[in-house]
Each structure stands twice: as C-alpha cells, then as structure tokens.
Amino acid sequence: MALLAVENVYKSFQGFLALAGVSLEVAEGSFHALVGPNGAGKTTLFNVITGRFPPDRGSVIFQGKPITGWPTHRVARLGLAISFQRAQPFASMKVREAVTLARLGYAGATFHLLRPLGAFTEALDAAREALAKVGLEDQADRRVSELPLGDLKRLDVAMALVAKPKLLLLDEPLAGLSRAERRRMVGFIRELLRREGVTLLFTEHDTEAVLELADRITVLHQGRVLVEGNPEEIRHDVQVRAAFLGG
Ligand code: ADP
Description:
ATP-binding, six-stranded mixed sheet, alpha/beta, four-stranded antiparallel sheet, ATP binding
C-alpha cells in the first residue's frame, strides 16, 4: 500500500484548470520528486495534499485513510509535514524558540501560558533533539533572521521534523543555494531522512539533484502527469529530456 495516494485530482482557479486529473502514489520509504516547468501545477498539488485548499474532484489518501479536504492541522497530526518557509514568520525569535513553538503547535497547545509545565519541558527536549539532528544545536540562541539561507533551510526541516512526520513535503529545498551548498543539502536531506525513516515528496528545479536524490520521479506538465519513472527511465526519456532536463 502506498503511504500517500492522490487519485484523479482536479483543481481549477477561475476557470483555469491547474490540475487536470492527477494521480500519484508515494511508496513508503521512497524519495519521490515532482518536477515540471513553472505553472505545471506542482505547488497546487502540494496545497491540495496538505489541505490548504480542497480539490474540485478526486481524492487524497494517506496511510489508507481518505483525507481529502481535511484542514492542514488535522493532516499534520496524521504525520504529514510540509517544510516550506516555516521559520519565516518567526524571524525575530531565537532558533530554539521557533522549534519549541512548532512542537507545541503540533502537540495542540493553544496559548503557552495556560499549558502545564510538562508540555514545555517536553517541547524543549524535542526542539533540542530536532536541532541536533539538523546540525544546528550551536545556533540555538541566534535569532532566526540572522541565519544564512542554508541554515534557515535546515531550520525549516527541523521545524517539520519536530512533529515526527512519516511523510515530509519539501518545496524546492535547494532554491537560492550556491552550487556547493546545494551539494551539501542533497547529502544532508538524504542522510537525515533515511536515518529517521521519513518518506519524502519534493519539488525541485535542479535536475541533476533530482536525478541524484529521487528514487521515483513524476513529471507534471499543464496539470497532467506527463511521465513517471525511476531516474534512469526519466534520464533516457527523449520527450522529458527535451522539455525539462535540457538536451
Ligand atoms: P508550479 O508550482 O508547477 O509552478 P502552480 O501550481 O503554482 O505551478 O500553478 C499552476 C497554475 O495554476 C498556474 O497557471 C498558476 O497561475 C495557477 N494558480 C495557482 N494558484 C492559483 C491561485 N491561487 N489563483 C489563481 N491561479 C492560480
């Protein structure tokens, strides 16, 4: 059984069909890439999966459970986390505080002063552990706004991992990074998620990184799945090469 299944999903915006019958299965333990040109529908599909907006038709099934149209916080509690610019709203906070808040939010805390001390202690411990996992333990007392982009992306991942997700969605994890940083980030993502046993669904424009990191690739084009395969199959697909991989 797939960890995540998207079945025949349609989504339109003011008559424009952004997703036109997309189906996708993410196998447990896999690193699955979603690629395609700008406007292909990748972000829209992420938003449908995480419940940011419901599809017009079709369904989303997570661990065999239909979650179509569920609100994001409910989807998150089932073990589906998105790590996209999570830290941004917490720019003035310290790194440790941002991750602690992410844990408290996940655990259902509403207003922290009303929570028992135990919830705090647990969240602080979880935050320390998550920061250690992404190698940011020595940055815990810095302000989020002071972090260089590479560290900020690690912090985004820590804020997602602190909820102990089964499936992590990463939206362009390498965007804005230098070539050297991209290489480091690919190694970091692979080692960390394999060690944690987290399944990954990600979008990315850096095709070399996609071919290196993914074990399954779905190519979206104009709201439809153009082709799906393993990196070898995708690399040798003439149509895909011409359109997206260059040459
Ligand atoms: P990608 O992430 O692959 O670049 P998107 O999912 O962002 O593609 O966009 C797919 C299409 O849907 C685009 O043509 C975009 O303009 C349109 N679209 C996405 N979100 C909205 C929205 N909230 N309102 C109107 N149009 C949207």
